[in-house]
Amino acid sequence: MSIFARPHYTSEITSFIDQMKEQKPTLEAEQRAGRALLWDKHLDRGLLEEYSEAKVPQQPYVYQTRVK
After folding, report:
1. Cβ neighbours of residue 21 under 8 Å, at least 6 residues apart?
2. Which pLDDT tens digits describe the chain residue by residue (68 residues)?
3. Is the Cβ–Cβ distance between 58 and 51 less than 8 Å?
4. Are the beta carbons of 50 and 43 closer than 8 angstroms?
5. Which runs of E-coded beta strand occur in 1-68?
6. What is the radius of gyration, based on Cα positions, of the chain?
7. Contact at 8 Å (CB) between 27 and 20?
8. Distances (CA, A) of 66 to 49, 54, 55, 57, 63
9. Whole-structure pTM value
């Protein structure tokens, strides 16, 4: 046995997550489905380009009224 060999260590959090996955095997699939609802979206590049062209430039100090 090497002097550098250490026993396998798992943190409390890792063991908790492993235990949770054993208790609920569908957990990862549910997480992926939840992520797909909010984040995994296909964006229409044409619409994004139109939105950026339609932006109105903001004046330097937003609270100042326009001087005519």
Report:
1. 27, 28
2. 577 777 788 899 999 999 999 999 999 999 999 998 888 888 899 999 999 999 988 888 878 777 66
3. no
4. no
5. none
6. 26
7. yes
8. 29, 21, 19, 14, 9
9. 0.47
Angle at 44 between CA 43 and CA 47, to 5 degrees: 125
Rounded Cα distance, 47 and 16, in Å:
44
Tokens of 46: 């044409």
Of 5, 30, 27, nearest in space to 16 by CA:
27
**Max Cα distance, the chain (Å):** 85
State how far the Cα of 24 lies from the Cα of 28, in Å rounded to an integer.
9
